[in-house]
Batch of 2 targets.
Target 1
Amino acid sequence: AQSVSQHNHHVILSEAASLELGCNYSYGGTVNLFWYVQYPGQHLQLLLKYFSGDPLVKGIKGFEAEFIKSKFSFNLRKPSVQWSDTAEYFCAVNARAGGTSYGKLTFGQGTILTVHP
Amino acid sequence: ETGVTQTPRHLVMGMTNKKSLKCEQHLGHNAMYWYKQSAKKPLELMFVYNFKEQTENNSVPSRFSPECPNSSHLFLHLHTLQPEDSALYLCASSQDLQNTEAFFGQGTRLTVV
C-alpha cells in the first residue's frame, strides 16, 4: 500500500528564512503529487501539483516543489517565508491504479509551520 | 469559497443518535470523497464516489453510511457512533479519477458524546 511521510511535524522559522519541507512516498509506479495548505480556521487548499512534465513545479504564493523520482520525494520550498505562511502543510500522493485512473489520495501526517515576525 | 459546501459546520450528537452530513459541490466534478481528519493523524480517506458509483470503501465501519444521489451531492449518514469518531469530516471533489486535484469543503466538526 502506498504511504506518504513528512519528515517534520513542526517547523519554526523567522520571517525571510528559507523553507524546505520534506515529503517522501512509497510507490514505484506513476503518481500524481500534491501539496495542500490549511491556514488556521480555513479549508484545505491546493498549493501546487505535479502530474507530468517538468519536475520543478511552481505554485501559488511563491512556493515550489521538485519531484525527484529516484528519491521518491516531492519536497516543498520557499526562498523567503512570511508570517502569513503560518499554516499546516500536507503532502499527498495518488498512484495510477489501472488504465488512466488513479487510486485514492494518500496524505502525509502534515507539517505545522510557524513563522515569527 | 472552494465551490464545495458542507453542512452543518459543527455537530454534537449522542451515541444513540442518527444524523447526516451533507456535501454539495458546484464545480461540475464527477468524483466526490469523504475524509476523516483526527488530531495528530493523517487525513484518512473513507469513501470515493465516481459518477455516483462508490469506487472505494476504505474499511470504514458500517455505522458510517455514504449516499451519493447525484454527482453534485454527497451525504454521510451517521448512527450509533462512538466517542472516538469525533473528528473533522471533510468532503472533497475532483474532476474525475484521472484529474484528481481535490477541492475541499470546510468540514464538519463532529463531537460524539
Target 2
Amino acid sequence: NAGVTQTPKFQVLKTGQSMTLQCAQDMNHEYMSWYRQDPGMGLRLIHYSVGAGITDQGEVPNGYNVSRSTTEDFPLRLLSAAPSQTSVYFCASGKDGFDYGYTFGSGTRLTVV
Amino acid sequence: QQQVKQSPQSLIVQKGGISIINCAYENTAFDYFPWYQQFPGKGPALLIAIRPDVSEKKEGRFTISFNKSAKQFSLHIMDSQPGDSATYFCAAVRGGATNKLIFGTGTLLAVQP
C-alpha cells in the first residue's frame, strides 16, 4: 500500500544510547519532515527536507540528525538519547503547493529510561 | 512561543450536536490553514483546509470559518457523530512550504452517543 512507513513502532532506549528511526515513502514526494508529539504541545517540527540531499532544521532540532540520500528515505538519528526525547515521532511526506495534504506515518513511540 | 493557539484542550459533545474548535495566530505571513484529524495510534490525516482569501469552506459536515482581520479560524463539525471522536489539530503554513506545518496544541473531542 502506498504511504509513509515508519519503523520501529515502539522502542525503549537507555540514556546515552543512539538509534535511527526509519521513514520511507513510495509516493515520490519531494517534501519530507519529522515531527514529535508530546501531550499538550501538539506536533513540533524537528527537521525537514525539500528533496534528496537537502535538509534543514525545524523548531526543535537539538539532539537529532537527518540525511536524505534518496527521495524515498528520510531517517532520523538520535545521537545520545535523553529522557526529554521520550515522545511519539511522526514522519510525513508531501508535495509542494497548497492543494496537497501532508501524509503522515503511523508513528514511533520512543521511551528513554 | 506558541505560534498557533488552539482551544479548547478537550471537548465533549452529544451526538447530533455541533463541535466548535477555535484557533488564533499572530504571523500574518501564514497563508494556508489546514485541519488535521488524529485517531488513537494513528498519524494525523488532513481533514479540510482553507486559504485566507475566503471566509468559509465547507466539506460535508465539516466547515472552516476564517476571520482574517481577527487572525482567527475555527472548525465546526455539524451533526457530530461518535466516529468523529478524535484529536483535532489546526495548523498554519507560510509561503507554500507545506513541509513546515506549525501545529496548534490539539483538541480531544469526545462525542457521546
